[in-house]
Amino acid sequence: MGRALIVAALLLIAGVIVWATIGGGLQDTVEDRLEAEMVARGIPQPMAECMAGRMAERLSVTQIRKLEELRAQEGEAVVPLSMAEFLERVRRIGDNEVVEVTASSAAICAFSGG
Description:
The protein is an all-alpha fold and 114 residues long. The chain has one domain (25-111). It has six helices and no strands. Helix 3 (45-58) packs across helix 6 (96-111).
C-alpha cells in the first residue's frame, strides 16, 4: 500500500511537470494574468494579449512579479492608462530588462496590429 501511494504521488508530480513545461500550462496562466492586468489598467485587449505572450516568454517569474508594482503614485490616474503612462510605470520598477521587453513588445504588437 505504501509503495503504491509513493508511486502514485511520483506519477502525479511527473504529470504536473510535463503539463507545465511541455503543455505550456504555467506559461498560459502567467500570460493570462499579464493580459488581465494590462487590460485592467486600460491597455486594449488585443494589444494586451499580444504583449502578454511575448512578456511571458521573455521575463522570469521574479521580473513578472515586479510588474505587480505598477500602482499609481499620488496625483496619477488609476485607470485607464495610455501606453506612455503604462511604460512610465514599468520604467519606475527599476529593471532595465523588464522595461526593454515591455517596450519592445508594445512596439512590435502595435506594428503587427496586436
